[in-house]
Amino acid sequence: MVRAMFFPFAFAGHELALGQGRALYWPAERTLLVADLHLEKASWFAARGQMLPPYDSRDSLERLAEAVRLTGARRVITLGDNFHDAAGALRLDPHSAGMLEALTRALDWVWITGNHDEELPKGFGGTIVPELELGGVVLRHEARAGETAPELSGHYHPKLRVNLRNRHIARPCAVIGSSDNGAERMILPAFGSLTGGLDAAHPEILGALQPARTIAALMPAKGRIARFPLWQASA
């Protein structure tokens, strides 16, 4: 059973659960999915003179370990951009490297590659693939415009921006597109620390989910999954 902090919803004939921590859990597969870890992003910027707190990898991995604990997941699938660059794995501090080694050893771990890490290091365990299919759903890093099969992806780091009581609020969210043939495709929020975000209604995100009849943002709110309409095709 998915515990508190993960909230169920239907997707492509499956029950999934989106967590407040930006992970997605698939109970029937006992699988946790996360997109865009961007491990060692801070150290990449530091090498270029922009100093950021060097704890992003540790924070991301600790939150991931907690999501595994909360859900009881037996498998983790990452949806690309796992490291911020090809050399990111070499810059992990010993504590973070140890956490990652323990996670990949304890779980059935699948790395899907992304545009930041097309060549992933093989030293941390797990299986490395460009994409895969699970339960009739295609899992890949970047949504493929024109895809007619159910699809889960990452890449865009969507955030929902709303004005509430004269306050501007931006929160990571998932974005789901539903087409006329009933197929659903979803872009997950970025899981990693320091990942920023693109407006959920940005034309790049809306275009990536075409063909679609409707597109909406999904976000855990008040103990449930709230949907915020972003776009609808003309009648």
Task: Write the SSE topology.
Layout: E1 6-11, E2 14-19, E3 24-26, E4 31-34, H1 41-46, H2 56-71, E5 75-79, H3 94-106, E6 108-112, E7 127-129, E8 131-134, E9 137-140, E10 151-153, E11 158-164, E12 167-172, E13 174-178, E14 184-187, E15 198-199, H4 203-208, E16 214-221, E17 224-232
Parallel strand pairs: 4-5, 5-6, 6-7, 9-10, 10-14, 11-15
Antiparallel strand pairs: 1-2, 2-3, 3-4, 8-9, 11-12, 13-14, 13-16, 16-17
Helix pairs in contact: 2-3
What does this structure look like?
By secondary structure, this protein is α/β, with parallel strands linked by helices. The chain has a single domain (6-232), classed as Purple Acid Phosphatase, chain A, domain 2. The chain contains four helices and 17 strands. The strands form three sheets. A seven-stranded mixed β-sheet has the order 1-2-3-4-5-6-7, covered by helices on one side. Helix 2 (56-71) packs parallel to helix 3 (94-106). The longest helix has 16 residues, at 56-71. The termini are far apart.
